[in-house]
Amino acid sequence: MARTLKGKRILLTGASTGIGRELARMLGAKGAKLALVARQVDKLKEAADEVRQAGGEAVVIPGDLTDPLTPSKVMDESVKALGGLDVLLNNAGVGTWNHFADGTEEHLRQVFEVNFFAISELMRLAVKPLIQGNQPAILNIASMTGRRGMPAFSEYSASKHALVGLTEALRGEYHRFGISVLLVLPGLTQSDFFKNVLASKGKAQLPMEKALTPSQTAAAVVKALENDTRETWVGGEAKRILWLNRFFPGWLDRKIAKTVVNLWAKTA
């Protein structure tokens, strides 16, 4: 199925910076009508202006998704402002960059609140308005770590695994409503992730010079939505690691474990 984005009513979370902001601009250029959700009001307003300049429409709906009351508020206000809903695009996320033994329960719960529980509730609340929508879809931006957990991203990986599992389950459940449930798994991206991490004491080899730009990841998301693609791997790193994980998981386990041992040995 080819999905036309012109006139589509889209609720986009995490819309103020990085991938979300690029998504807002690109969807605006396609003629979409957007409800932009994030905590940073000033940056949300800037993103909304960029959407309008690109040719789309946008309303700003500030909200902290860790607040249990926020998902229902966001959904109600979005549906009212847009006159309905065609697409729920879950982009908001947070993480930690540390080793699990040095982490805290508080941080783990915060990561799950944003990356899993808030998104889960939005997907539950979206059913009724999406049933009335035009070519309705839910698209979840997870991470390659949602298929292959990575050291120093243990808590983030766990939350993304949970999101991937729920996405797959809902793909079957929501088919009877005529709602597509899509999944995008980007590799390392040059976003504000490391500026906003809850902990930053990890040891890992991060080839940032080869990382995706926010616009590259956003473009892949837009394409996935237009083509109704069930699952999309974005970036050479993600494709390589996920391919190895699928066909040679034992070798990949040993390779990653050896890398971690060497990293810690150098800093001992």
Account of the 3D structure:
By secondary structure, this protein is of the alpha/beta class. The protein has a single domain, classed as Rossmann fold, CATH 3.40.50.720. It is built from nine helices and seven strands, in the order E-H-E-H-E-H-E-H-E-H-E-H-H-E-H-H. The chain has a seven-stranded parallel β-sheet with strand order 3-2-1-4-5-6-7, sandwiched between helices. Helix 3 runs parallel beside helix 4, helix 4 runs parallel beside helix 5 and helix 8 crosses helix 9. It is globular and about 60 Å long. The protein starts with 8 loop residues before the first strand and ends with a helix.
Radius of gyration from CA coordinates: 18 Å
CATH architecture: 3-Layer(aba) Sandwich
The residue ranges in which pLDDT falls below 50 over 5 or more consecutive positions are none
Sheet with most strands: 7 strands, parallel
Blueprint (SSEs and pairs):
Layout: E1 9-13, H1 18-29, E2 33-38, H2 41-54, E3 57-62, H3 70-82, E4 87-90, H4 105-131, E5 137-141, H5 154-173, E6 180-186, H6 193-196, H7 214-227, E7 231-234, H8 236-247, H9 249-267
Parallel strand pairs: 1-2, 1-4, 2-3, 4-5, 5-6, 6-7
Helix pairs in contact: 1-2, 1-7, 3-4, 4-5, 8-9
Key features?
alpha/beta; Rossmann fold; 7-stranded parallel beta sheet; 7 strands
Task: Summarize, please.
With 268 residues, the chain is of the alpha/beta class. The protein has one domain (9-267): Rossmann fold (3-Layer(aba) Sandwich).
